[in-house]
Amino acid sequence: MERGSFVLGHQLTSDQLDARILNYPTITVPERKTTLNTTPVGIDRAILFDDGAYNNRDIQLILGFEGKQADSNIQKFLSVLDTGKYIDLQMYSDPDYTYQVIRQSTGTIARPTYSDSYRELTITLSSAPYRYVVPAKTATITTTTSTLVNPTNYVAKPYIKIVGNGAITLTVNGIAYKFTDVKGSIELDSAMQNVWRVDSGVMVNENAKMAIGPFPTLKPGNNTIVLSAGTATIEMRWRTL
Predict the structure, then answer these.
(1) In terms of C-beta distances under 8 Å and separation of at least 24 residues, what long-range contacts does 171-177 make, across chains too?
(2) Which residues, 6+ apart, have CB-to-CB distance to 151 below 8 Å?
(3) Which of 18, 51, 158, 197 gives the lowest tally of CB atoms within 10 Å of its CB?
(4) CA-to-CA separations, 223 to 173, 176, 231, in angstroms, rounded
(5) Considering the entire predicted model, what is its pTM?
């Protein structure tokens, strides 16, 4: 990526907006979600409760918008952010990863006195704690044992689409995930913990067809995967802090 460039939501590029990131983005390290209990008597330290998760991080940006459409392009940039859901942001400063961001704070728009066709937007975005490897890596799984290698130090929560019919078992690292009465296909998102299928363009809830239990995850290093029937497509979603 060129210096200052970015892609927002896989659809809006810095070139389309005549915009550039002016600063080297300031990105905080996410805070671990922990609680300290200091009430126990006779213990020489607080008791630590670790949630095994992280709080969001902040990304501070200064963006310059050129041309007569500068004001309009700022509104396009903000409208993509203001959709009520996380939006992918890829920046020149970290081109191998995408961040999932939302706008929770105010921003400032400045116009220098020497120009009527240039604007600077200063804004802080809230980002989900993990950044994700791009481009997204996918693999096709069959009834032959496959090995997926997680190159990061963190557990990944994949998206999986299984194509087949009837009772199907997906085994990941020796743990069996069982699906009943599959009709053509079934999809699951380990991050959102949802199971569904698409029927004539309509999403149908299929949570009841997955045996109760945790959703599949991919640990750092080697992961062995096998399917009892049909085929599966896995988007691994490798991630790191």
Answers:
(1) 171/224, 171/225, 171/226, 171/227, 171/228, 172/216, 172/217, 172/218, 172/223, 172/224, 172/225, 173/219, 173/223, 173/224, 173/225, 174/224, 175/216, 177/210, 177/211, 177/213, 177/215, 177/216
(2) 133, 238
(3) 51
(4) 6, 13, 17
(5) 0.87
Neighbour-count burial of 211, counting CB atoms closer than 10 A to its CB (0-12 exposed, 13-18 middle, 19+ buried): exposed
Flag whether pLDDT at 114 surpasses 80: no
Q: What is the pLDDT of residues 10-57, one digit of tens each?
A: 889 999 999 999 999 999 999 999 998 888 777 888 888 988 899 999
Which residues lie below 8 Å from residue 138, measured CB to CB, with a gap of 6+? 233, 234, 235, 236
Instruction: Tell me the C-alpha to C-alpha distance, in Å, between residue 190 and each of 83, 96, 151.
Output: 23, 23, 19
